[in-house]
Amino acid sequence: MIEVLHRWALGPGVLAVCSGDLTASQADAVVNAANPQLAGGGGVDGALHRVAGPELLAAGRAWVEAHGPLGTGRAVITPGFGLAVRFVIHTVGPVWRGGSQDEDALLASAYRESLALAGAHGLESVDLPAVSCGVYGFPVQRATAIALGELAKSLRTGVVKRAAMVIFSPDAAELWADAARSLFGDPAR
């Protein structure tokens, strides 16, 4: 289940901050915080693979076999298979190394490329996780400004109509909502 905590109108688009399980998404696509091999793993990646079924792993392997590992900050799209969404957009976020390895720009690229792929495929709604904030160690407070800034740009320019940050922990989701409030003001009613 996904619960919308707050919404903001940004140009022609809507940004939402939600609490819940990304595997329950009803959007056109979800973004997967993937590893370069698109091989499934822990956290969001593992959860999406479990629900999508083995076809998602096979699609990732086929892509990597044809193109090589997915680079940090890049994104690729596959069908959603057993998920309710039509597509999974896989992106590789940066591993946090103290901030001196271009991590901010790579995280921004991961979100920007994911939303651009959604727009290129005519998708209107995308649900996203906190890319790189788990085992990759990216500081959450720093990530919120980067991620929300990229989502806002894509919404204001009509790349997608709706983007939602879906954060599993209600407490962590409130951190994202607070960051959005500081960037965009009070949420829409």
What is the level-2 CATH architecture name?
Answer: 3-Layer(aba) Sandwich
Low-confidence stretches: none
Question: What is the CATH homology-level superfamily?
Answer: Leucine Aminopeptidase, subunit E, domain 1
Strand order of the largest sheet: 1-2-7-6-3-5-4
Count of distinct structural domains: 1
Q: Which series of helices and strands comes N to C?
A: EEEHHEEHEHEH
Helix % is 25-40%
Structural class by secondary-structure content = alpha/beta
The helix tally amounts to 5
Alpha-carbon distance between the termini?
Answer: 22 Å
User: What's the multimeric state?
Assistant: single chain
The CATH topology annotation reads as Leucine Aminopeptidase, subunit E, domain 1
- Overall pLDDT: 97
Work out the number of β strands: 7
The level-1 CATH class: Alpha Beta
Tell me the major beta sheet: 7 strands, mixed
Spatial extent as radius of gyration: 15 Å
The backbone outline, from C-alpha atoms, is globular
> How much strand content do the residues show?
15-25%
